[in-house]
Amino acid sequence: MADNHKISVRNMKKCLTLLFAASSMLLFNACENEVFTPERVESTKDLVAPADFDWKTTQSQTYNLISKVNTVVSIYTDKDCTDESLLIENLVLNANEATDVSVNIPAYVTSIFVQYPTEDGKEVFEINTNGVTTRAKGSFIQLPAEHTYSFNFDFLKHYYYPNKRGQGTLMFEDLYPSKGDYDFNDFVIGYNVEIFKSPFSGIDWREGVVGLTMKFQIRAIGGGIPYRPIIRLKGFPMRCIKDANKEYNSTRDGIKIELLEEGRNDEDDVIFIIDNTKSLCNGGYYNTDDEQPLDYNMPVVTCTITNNGLGFKDYMIAQKFEELAQNLPDYFDFFIQNQENNNEIHFRGFSPTNMSNQDSNAEFKSKENLVWAIAVPEKIAHPAEKEDIIKVYPDFKDWVLSGGKINNRWYKNPQGSVIKLN
Questions:
Q1: Long-range contacts of 274-283, Cβ-Cβ distance < 8 Å, separation of 24 or more
Q2: pTM to 2 decimal places
Q3: Torsion-angle region of residue 287: left (phi > 0), alpha (psi -120 to 50) or beta?
Q4: From CA 400, how far away is CA 410, in angstroms rounded?
Q5: How far apart are CA 105 and CA 151, in angstroms?
Q6: Are residues 127 and 121 in contact, defined by beta-carbon separation less than 8 angstroms?
Q7: What is the DSSP string of 10-38?
Q8: Which member of 27, 151, 175, 334 has the lowest number of beta carbons within 10 Å of its beta carbon?
């Protein structure tokens, strides 16, 4: 009888073990086969973005313009040709000579507008962003300019990002590689960049001018980690500005922008550092709590780099400035650096600098292709502290899930708790 009891107990334990193993396998398979369901998304953490989604709110377009007469044009995103939509100013087109023109414009824009001089004033020519126009000639876009324009050799060609008078917005989460609260207000920066150069057409280019002006406004700091903003022009070497005039300005005492020069050689990337921004927080946060006083007179730092009278050996510098002007998004690596351990947080597509101890191949995206930095080519309101961006910008969700194919104006309609500054 006792032996039978022992056998029954052993059999029961064996059955329980098998049952537990089977249950574990079923649970494992259920987890493995769980399908992402967009309807269940309640926060940005729940999102899964398409693997090829680049998170850009802009589009880069290149047009091949040609005019049958010498002329000077300016390019806008608005048919009214306002400074708030001006992308390129004083672009020289030589008669019957094709010129590649690259622009970086909001993803929702469907046309650009080329303003050219006429005998009686100015006219505007519209070009669809797909490059198709009724006056397209082969791979060229023929401008209907008839009036030969004799330009003043003293003027400069200007490229503006995001435009001449406007300001773009850079927003960061600061807990990389961990996921944060996704309010994207741990650092919020406004930016405007202008690159200028002589036309180098009809003049001795050795007497030309090239340069750039960058303006950054510290709009909000909602993180407790001591990060500071840094700008790297990736692939733009120090030799291009080695002998240039450098001018720095700030609207707030103590907060400054300066070129990083110590320990840098001629072929190292140009890097600018914005220092002492944490002083704005006074032990707390800065412009992220709408129940606390907001600073509407936010500090702006500016740096202007000017190369005058380029010598013969520096012709390549002029060419490098032209590449920078036409393709700034490829060079513009704005990131934040933790001053305690030098760890960095970059936009998707950029890698850490050699100032960091991070893996040089680190990618600033999660396995769900979520990011820690977003750029918008307009000034926008940022979420208040602890307010998930998906809550205050409802169109953000489908923009991400679609890989940017829909709702590319998601930042136009904020709802709920956002911080609206001037």
A1: 274/216, 274/218, 274/228, 274/229, 274/230, 274/231, 274/301, 275/228, 277/218, 277/221, 277/228, 277/229, 278/221, 278/226, 278/228, 279/254, 279/255, 280/218, 280/221, 280/255, 281/221
A2: 0.88
A3: left
A4: 10
A5: 27
A6: no
A7: HHHHHHHHHHHHHHHHHHHHHHHTPPP-G
A8: 27
Q: Measure the CA–CA gap between 399 and 390, rounded to whole angstroms.
A: 10
DSSP of 229-291, one letter per residue?
EEEEEEEEEGGGTTTSEEEEEESSTT-EEEE--TT--TTSEEEEEEE-GGGGSTTS-BS--TT
Residue 140 pLDDT: 77
- At 408, list the tokens: 């590319």
Antiparallel, parallel or unpaired: β 300-308 and 209-220: antiparallel
Higher model confidence: residue 255 or residue 131?
A: 255
| CA gap 8, 234 in Å, rounded | 73
Tokens in use for 229? Answer: 């903003």
Rg, Å, the chain Cα set: 27
Q: How far apart are CA 70 and CA 94, in angstroms?
A: 5
Per residue in 337-370, is it b (16+ CB within 10 Å) or e — as a string?
A: bbeeeebbbbbbbbbbbeebebeeebebbbeebb
Q: Which of 412, 372, 289 is nearest to 44 (CA)?
A: 372
Query: Quick check: bond before 414 cis, omega within 30?
Result: no
Query: From the CB of residue 121, how many other CB atoms can be counted at a distance below 10 Å?
Result: 7
Q: Both tokens of residue 249?
A: 């300005």
Torsion sign (Cα): 318, 328, 162, 215 = negative
Residues near 215 by beta carbon (within 8 Å), at least 6 away in sequence = 190, 191, 192, 193, 300, 301, 302
Q: Kindly state the helix (H) or strand (E) to which residue 74 belongs, with its residue range.
A: strand 71-76
225: Cα within 13 Å, side-chain hemisphere: 21
pLDDT in tens, 201-220: 544 556 678 999 999 999 99
CA distance 136 to 138: 6
Q: Is the dihedral of CA 402, 379, 80, 149 positive or negative?
A: negative
| pLDDT of the residue at 5 | 47
Taking the C-alpha atoms of residue 286 and residue 294, their distance in angstroms, rounded to an integer, is: 8
Which one-letter amino acid corresponds to residue 327? N
CA-wise closest residue to 318 among 327, 330, 308: 308
